[in-house]
Amino acid sequence: MKLSHLMIAMLAVASAGSAMAAADTYNLDPTHTFPSFEADHMGMSVWRGKFNKTKGTVTLDRAAKTGTLDLVIEADSIDFGLDAMNTHAKKADMFNVEKFPQITYKSNKLKFTGDQLTEVDGELTLLGVTKPVTLKVNKFKCIMHPRYKREVCGADATAEFKRSDFGLNFGLPAFSPEVKLAIQVEAIKAD
Question: pTM for the full model?
Fold first, then answer.
């Protein structure tokens, strides 16, 4: 009889432990999440732009040091700060937003150093081409937000890749294919 009580107690502890280690889900805050980029302009200057519309989710299990990221960027929200450039960037020879309305980044490989998120290995899909892109997380912090009364996590991440790997070949070879990506992101814990 004592053995069965011990088994029940062990199962209860195991269940409680797995429930405590469950991942939390966070919804990206579109008013605080803006992927931006830098690209060469014939070696003379650097063009900078950003995307104004994003959505997605993050899951974090900080105890297990695991998680996922699912980011969707609306390609037609590209913004260089110059209307003529925005219009051209949406055309078929660049971002081809009519055929490829979304750019995505997906990961299930979040890397931690201690308690700090430091890297995300994922896949970027641009112009229908999917390639691995690693984000270096330069800053990561979670707080109880005073306005939302929920936990909010924020990060600043960077990456570099060649746009030509995704078929974005406009202006090559006069323009360098290297792109620097920076993402500021904040995500609000789901209810």
Answer: 0.86
